[in-house]
Amino acid sequence: MTKRRKEVEEKLSTMRRDGRESVLVVADFDMTLTSFLMPDGSRGMSTHGMLERSGYFGEAFTTRAKDIFNRFYPIEVDPNLDWDSKFAAMSEWWETTHKLIVEQEVTKKDIAACVKAGHFRFREGVPELLAQLKEREVPILVFSAGIADVLEEIFKQRLGLEGLPIISNKMKFDEEGKLVGFENNTIHIMNKGAVALEGQNLELVKDKSNVILLGDSLGDLRMADGLPNKQQVLKIGFLNDKIEERKEEYLEKFDVVIVNDGPMTAVNELLAPIFA
User: Fold this and answer.
1) Keywords of this protein's UniProt record, alphabetized (predicted)?
2) Is the model's pLDDT at 274 over the cut of 70?
3) Fewer CB within 10 Å: C terminus or N terminus of the chain?
């Protein structure tokens, strides 16, 4: 659904005119490339959830992680909370969770086991989208407030993909292969616009003027802030939860909104003329 059909059509027309060589896809991961709900109606795991809900690190860890989630998730989806208060809460949520995960001395072998047992699925149409982007040589930058090491393992195990450009929270391991912390500053759902692109990621995006942004939170709208040569951004949002309370705000902020944990196939159809 959209409140600005004419603007969407104009953006798509510009992308078709400029050609797919001008296009970059920037996508959130959790609950954007993946589904919010599983077929049985239960909530799918996020990348943090792969570790927190797996049971792999014992009951005490699982219980503590659940308590932290139950404290902060209502704040994340509260449409009435001001930006500064929500930003502070999300910062605290991520820092608290990462400290708890580090205490478990996680290894890469642990990550692989948690992903293998993970209760999650890619959103319908996502494998096809990724295949189409690869075939048409349109780059995708995965910009996640999750955990980069878990993301890499997910793409490897579930889709056989390695080397996708990912900006996320990267784990740091000691000589024995145990987690001792996270590299650089924490990325959470509210501060993606402050993350500086560098190295290969900057090289990937530097000549791209047309951006297709895929996200499920209002914080994801800032994922394109650091792109140096963007001229327009087509913003596509997935509204998975608290739909009636947040629908109007999403329709105001995103160009197109997919509700009720809808499939990526609708997005694929929308973008097909650009990639033809």
Assistant:
1) Hydrolase, Magnesium, Metal-binding, Nucleotide metabolism, Nucleotide-binding
2) yes
3) C
d(CA 49, CA 106): 14
According to the model, what pLDDT value does residue 226 have? 81
Q: What digits encode the pLDDT tens for the residues 19-46? A: 999 999 999 999 999 999 999 999 999 9
- Across 1-29, b (16+ Cβ under 10 Å) vs e yields eeeeeeebeebbebbeebebebbbbbbbb
Q: Just list the catalytic residues.
A: 28, 30
Instruction: Domains for the chain: give ranges and CATH numbers.
Output: 5-275 (3.40.50.1000)
Name the least confident of 80-89, 129-138, 196-205.
196-205
Average pLDDT in the chain: 93
pLDDT band of 62, cuts 50, 70, 90:
very high
